[in-house]
Amino acid sequence: MRRKPVPPAPDSLDRLWDAHRAVPLVPGTEDDCCGRVAERLDVTPDEGRDWLVFCQSLGLAREVSRGFERVRDDPTQDDLRAAFESNVFGAREALDALGDEPKSVDAVFDAFEPTVPNWERHRDPEGWESRWRDRVARLLDWAVLFGAAARKSDGYVAVEDAD
User: InterPro entries given for it (predicted)?
Assistant: First the structure.
């Protein structure tokens, strides 16, 4: 299952590890976990939920019968990259829009735009474009952190997989 929440990308993966450590080892309810993540990262509860679901997408947290729990594995940057591309809605599509020549967020969004679900367009006819353009920018910034893309002075470029 590909999940949509994508928090703003930080300057380094340290913030992701802070979010990971905020997820309890002993399962807690979704509300408890979101609150704990929000408190540790000093964000709103809704933003805490986005971080929790993002951690789940990356394999850093999992949902169990009693709520959510931290996954104790130590994934590599390559593991995170693979999980990001496979499990975060839009990551693969944004990366597919990149090539060897730098592309701006707007250019990537133009290529990405057909994948925006129709219900998203109808839900907010006046604001969906700016929301999804921001989402593409977040996806690209996370792709840089995971080594799937590089930021150049004039845009983003794809980075070939090391395999």
Answer: Double_WHD-containing_halo
Q: Nearest to residue 108, comparing CAs of 133, 87, 89, 126?
A: 133
The dotted CATH code for 14-70 is 1.10.10
**Beta strands 67-70 and 155-158: pairing type?**
unpaired
Span 65-86, pLDDT tens digits: 999 999 998 899 999 999 999 9
What is d(CA 148, CA 69) in angstroms, rounded to the nearest whole number? Answer: 27
DSSP letter assigned to residue 67 = E
Question: Which residues are registered as beta bridge partners of 63?
Answer: 68
> Could you give the angle at which helices 105-112 and 128-145 cross, rounded to 10 degrees?
110
> Beta-strand (E) ranges in the chain?
61-64, 67-70, 149-152, 155-158
**What's 8's DSSP letter?**
P
Q: Is the pTM of this model over 0.90?
A: yes
Domain boundaries, the chain: 14-70, 77-158
Q: Which residues contact 81 (CB under 8 A, 6 or more apart)?
A: 146, 147, 148, 161
Q: What is the pLDDT of residue 98?
A: 96
89-133 pLDDT, tens per residue?
Answer: 999 999 999 988 999 999 999 999 999 999 999 998 999 999 999
